[in-house]
């Protein structure tokens, strides 16, 4: 590996670190800005004040916000994503349980895209037919508008009226 490539990769890696810290800060802030008390939601309306205080202490929600943030970052960088409130299992295990299905879905969609894109590209490159080049060249302009504009156009093209009036 050349020195220029090594320097480039090091600079890119160092530029990723502030972005990751910013994303972690944003996630932490958004979690704390959600209205309502998560402890009250977890225990329900019939919980006593002692139960609420006990769970807040166990979750560390009675600590100052900066201490909570430091705890969040420390455990995040150690790979400890915490325990799911819904499933009462470690989040890391839940993610790894779904990982094979995610890889299968991503791989099969990539294979399908390649099976369609390569022959379409060859057809357009060889100028096999005007119809093939029209079909392939129409696709990118269809992707440029935002999703909500495309969906509104589909709704109006099919004549579907949602009945929101």
- State the end-to-end CA separation: 64 Å
Helix content: over 70%
In total, the number of strands is 0
> What order do the SSEs take from the amino end to the carboxyl end, as H and E?
HHHHHHH
Class inferred from helices and paired strands: mainly alpha
Question: Strand share of the residues?
Answer: under 5%
Instruction: Give the biggest beta sheet.
Output: none
The residue ranges in which pLDDT falls below 50 over 5 or more consecutive positions are: none
**Rg:** 25 Å
* Overall pLDDT metric: 82
Short description:
This protein is mostly helical.
Structure overview:
With 165 residues, the chain is an all-alpha fold. The chain has a domain at 88-159. The chain is 75% helix and 0% strand. It is built from seven helices and no strands. It starts with a helix and ends in a 7-residue tail after the last helix.
Write the topology of this structure.
Layout: H1 3-33, H2 38-43, H3 49-59, H4 65-77, H5 91-126, H6 130-143, H7 147-158
Key features of this structure:
165 residues; mainly alpha; 7 helices
């Amino acid at each position: 590996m050349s020195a220029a490539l090594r320097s480039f990769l090091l600079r890119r890696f160092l530029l990723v670190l502030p972005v990751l810290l910013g994303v972690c800060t944003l996630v932490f802030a958004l979690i704390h800005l959600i209205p309502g008390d998560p402890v009250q939601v977890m225990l329900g309306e019939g919980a006593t004040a002692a139960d609420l205080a006990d769970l807040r202490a166990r979750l560390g929600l009675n600590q100052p916000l900066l201490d909570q943030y430091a705890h969040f970052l420390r455990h995040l960088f150690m790979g400890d994503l915490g325990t799911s409130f819904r499933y009462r299992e470690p989040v890391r295990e839940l993610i790894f349980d779904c990982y094979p299905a995610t890889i299968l879905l991503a791989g099969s969609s990539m294979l399908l895209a390649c099976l369609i894109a390569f022959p379409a590209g060859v057809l357009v490159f060889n100028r096999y037919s005007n119809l093939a080049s029209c079909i392939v060249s129409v696709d990118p302009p269809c992707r440029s508008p935002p999703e909500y504009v495309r969906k509104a156009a589909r709704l109006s093209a099919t004549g579907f009226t949602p009945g929101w009036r």
